[in-house]
Amino acid sequence: MADASVVVPSAYRNNITAVPDWLNKGDNAWQMVSAALVGMQGMPGLVILYAGLVKKKWALNSAFMALYAFAAIMPCWVLWAYKMSFGRRLLPFWGKAGLAVSQDFLIGQALLPSTHYIDEDANAETAAIQPWYPTATMVFFQYAFAAVTVILLAGSVLGRMSIKAWMVFVPLWITFSYSVGAFSVWGGGFLFQWGIMDYSGGYVVHLASGTAGFTAAYWVGPRLNVDRENFPPNNLLLALAGAVLNTHICAATSLLVWTCWDVLFFKKPSVIGAIQGMITGLVCITPGAGLVQGWAALVMGIASGTIPWYTMMSLSRKLPLLQKVDDTLGVFHTHAVAGTLGGALTGLFAHPSLSSLFLPIPHSKGAFYGGNGGVQFLKQLVGASFIIGWNIVATSIILLIVRVWIPLRMSEEELIVGDDAAHGEEAYALAGQGEREAYTQNGVEIEIPQV
């Protein structure tokens, strides 16, 4: 029998198996996995977390707001917002818009903050360390952070914001608010040049979403009194599934500390409280995740399980502004407060050796390590102030413009009925044999016969 094997010329064999000099398959694979894990926090993580934490009549609407944001960010990101966040400088706090959907294979002008610096004279970014993966990988990785930020913001306005207004708000906010913070802190803008430390989003993601969410909640207005006073979660098991549980030092410590405070003051451990504590721990550690040592992460976990708990469970009942603004899921406390806390503590505990790996700015370190470390702590506070101020102003302007054409709030009927009035659909079919008792068709309620 003749040999059926095929002899492949060596030149052709090399062409189909060789890896380009600039590509490291391991680096690229890990970056893609990391992007997927971040993205999963938003979809399905936050989508089903919101669906479970809200009142039954808002389960579908809340999940859909999160899902819409996750999808809507992608075209905005690749068409203009990515370049505004990680492209060439237009202003010290703003990048030039441009397409990220191209045939580029190397990361040229868009690099991780730890891999580039700005040549002020040339007004262009200069690579310090060339990453070993394609531009497309970086675009996807940063998209996941942008999408999660907007979804977190949604948590402040669940249960009353018009879905049409939300659909317009999302692309405007990612363009005029998120991209400014991302470029300023991560993309080579003035805060990065100044040495602000935000390893993985304490400022860019969490402080921005918490501040913008609280601002949006002010302009949209509160829920109905009956909803605000009685807003039980419809499915805590679903909410637990949506909460991305892990054993990281800060997150685990924060969860335990928050639970202990609940037991101490309210005599019972709360599942919702445990979820909140885990979230504040994750938020608090993000600015210093790669910059602090394990003992510092433990201290940060204790702080993040205590201070946001106090602002949410005690201070919010005393301060008139916090009482007036209806922040549905307490995003201000779990993200804005915890994000600011994490940034400040990073300014205290950032290790000199780890800081030098993160920033091309020499002698960066936390105040705990003496010398000029106190300067870093003050820088962190100034950086937080910029993110807070910009998000208040930008979010307010966007919503004031949107409401000229689209009401920010749902109608009175929609607020009373919930999902069925807003979407003509419900999250759960509980009556009869898994069917609803009635459904809405063209505004007319039609009864379903029970079998």
From TrEMBL:
Transmembrane stretches in the record are 29-51, 63-82, 140-159, 166-192, 236-258, 295-315, 336-361, 381-406
Localisation per UniProt entry: Membrane
Membrane disposition: Multi-pass membrane protein
Spell out the InterPro entries in the cross-references. Answer: Ammonium/urea_transptr (IPR029020), Ammonium_transpt (IPR001905), Ammonium_transpt_CS (IPR018047), NH4_transpt_AmtB-like_dom (IPR024041)
Residue intervals of the Ammonium transporter AmtB-like domain: 243-428
Name the chain's protein: Ammonium transporter AmtB-like domain-containing protein
Keyword line: Ammonia transport, Membrane, Transmembrane, Transmembrane helix, Transport
Under the heading Gene3D superfamilies, the entry gives: Ammonium transporter AmtB like domains
Cellular component terms (Gene Ontology): plasma membrane
Q: Which GO terms describe its molecular function?
A: ammonium channel activity
Q: Which protein family is named in the record? A: Belongs to the ammonia transporter channel (TC 1.A.11.2) family.
The organism's taxonomy opens as: Eukaryota, Viridiplantae, Streptophyta, Embryophyta, Tracheophyta
